[in-house]
Amino acid sequence: MSVTAAKGFEAAGVAAGLKSSGGLDLALVVNRGPLSAAAAVFTSNRAKANPIIWSQQVIADGEVSAIVLNSGGANCFTGPQGFQVTHSTAEAVAEALGVSAGDVLVCSTGLIGDQLPLDKVLAGVASAAAALGDRGEDASLAIMTTDSKPKRSVREGTGYTVGGMAKGAGMLAPGLATMLVVITTDADLPSAVLDSALRAATRVSFDRLDSDGCMSTNDQVSLLASGASGVVPSVDEFTAVLTAVCLDLAEQLQGDAEGASHDIRIEVTGAASEDDAVEVGRSVARNNLFKAAVFGNDPNWGRVLAAIGTTSAEFDPYDVDVSMNGVRVCHAGAPDRPRSDVDLSPRRVDVHIALNVGQAAATILTNDLTHDYVHENSAYSS
Amino acid sequence: MSVTAAKGFEAAGVAAGLKSSGGLDLALVVNRGPLSAAAAVFTSNRAKANPIIWSQQVIADGEVSAIVLNSGGANCFTGPQGFQVTHSTAEAVAEALGVSAGDVLVCSTGLIGDQLPLDKVLAGVASAAAALGDRGEDASLAIMTTDSKPKRSVREGTGYTVGGMAKGAGMLAPGLATMLVVITTDADLPSAVLDSALRAATRVSFDRLDSDGCMSTNDQVSLLASGASGVVPSVDEFTAVLTAVCLDLAEQLQGDAEGASHDIRIEVTGAASEDDAVEVGRSVARNNLFKAAVFGNDPNWGRVLAAIGTTSAEFDPYDVDVSMNGVRVCHAGAPDRPRSDVDLSPRRVDVHIALNVGQAAATILTNDLTHDYVHENSAYSS
Hints:
5-stranded mixed beta sheet, EC 2.3.1.35 (chains A, B), 6-stranded mixed beta sheet, homodimer, transferase (chains A, B), autocatalytic cleavage (chains A, B), acyltransferase (chains A, B), Arginine biosynthesis bifunctional protein ArgJ (chains A, B), alpha+beta
């Protein structure tokens, strides 16, 4: 299902030989219309992969007929030759489908700095075009890298459907987007509405996921609308359904983060502004000492406060409360209930930080820092 | 030697029972004059420990007679009771030495959020005052926490001496200072000169050390001058000697960082400004994926570029060169020499990033991300 849950879409996932494992590594998602409206958000990393540079041009007119995605190589920092591979890939898709290359988004993921073999990519495009159908599951498998499982989500609106797929397990600290996500809908909405709905949804979902503080060069979230349901939903309802899909996918990304043994939910309340709440949550989410402590089931709240202290957020160090899994371990900047009352053995860890200066709030999702994270990212180039 | 290398200083290190190991855990350094000039820089963390809050008042008039330091507890987020412990400690030192409590700096290091036992601290102060002498080595041992060895440095100026000690192995990302450092000199200089020299020296030494991105609540670097040499050096010469001591201590901190297996030196050249060079170096130094790759002896330069891309520094992603241990692996944003040419097996790793937009440069010192780092910071509260 996933990207083929909504009416008007076909997909495929094939093995093009880009992954040394021989697994599925090239996905194609096609919008059969009647509408071909689209929106996309991209990594805010200033070092952008070739497919990002290409796709930013494609999305400019809000028209997208298809999106082709490969794992097995990021096609980033591969010079003019790498850009030519992206361009040729889009042209091959366009020719196979009878559409314009300027309406084909391209996404890549894998090791930075290696060239993609163009011949294998082109053969893969041909295979994928021939295999198109209700194959959203194959597509979601073909975009996996170090993911241990595919991420898919489908929600029903009033008479229309929103479905999506995502990949991402490391380098997970998106700025506006995360890794590769494709969402499709058969709602009948113009690209300008899709764009604002997508920005609203990603701002509170993928943008609040900060697994390891490392922003990718290839992040892309695309939303394609076929209009095939004939339903024109209200912008608010559509944004809510879209946000639910994005949040579901973001939590699946968190749950499968490289080497993680805990999914940490950092809820910041009582902030002077939402920006403050996000800054505080992100600072804690990026604190290696705190993350290592959670791995060791150690409710080391001093590391939470040390991380808050590095932010520019409005707060009084002597009027901050911190709770972990429901136990308030710090009250007014001093010890409260004993650390030993906190049970951090479940995978899910809730950290609540009350700044006590205002009414704004935000939640950041992160993971712990584990031996397996170090192992996966030292033993394998990815 | 260390803090007792310069004339006019006495020190001691005793076991006050603050460390469960029973090791040395309380140090006292006394300036016997004739001068009692001093300067200090403190953590820029907004969550400050009680001894920082106290010491910032003490240093205001540039007069310091003694500094007392304890390991075994950070005395941070311990409320009014914790501040009272700091205050009482300074008063006990003042009484034992016949000086003013307002001229006694206090430093603490250890777990955040636990109360220090005042009775043990006061007994320790009495023992230390009784043991004062040429005991800079004992003092340098008493301030260790997870350090595997003491850090000491001595340099001779023209007719005067600068010596120091430092501790710090984790939470090493100082903002203006790092962990605990005490430097003494018998040069005859007023506190205003000491202050500007210390700020100049720390800016290019401790401030360029970013082992794990985690800024402490207790960082303090103090410089005490006794004037006992009778020598009034030039400000430039003194700053150069002081900077050499600070750099030596910073490199010792790097070399003993928790769990590290590589000392990484990130040299950024061709930057538009020194701030840009520091921002780029620090961003790479804080990138967990890059740090894990170095642990695995993997010259994964794509992660270097991805980290540069998250900065606001002036650069063109397609005109950046990256070398690792002398091998240029990336030229003009594309692959250059093969990764396999790079040997990352030595402990020392040199990363050179040429931004090719200006003349400014900076070097950041960091460490790799290892299993031992995760182990030390998950298995033990510190």
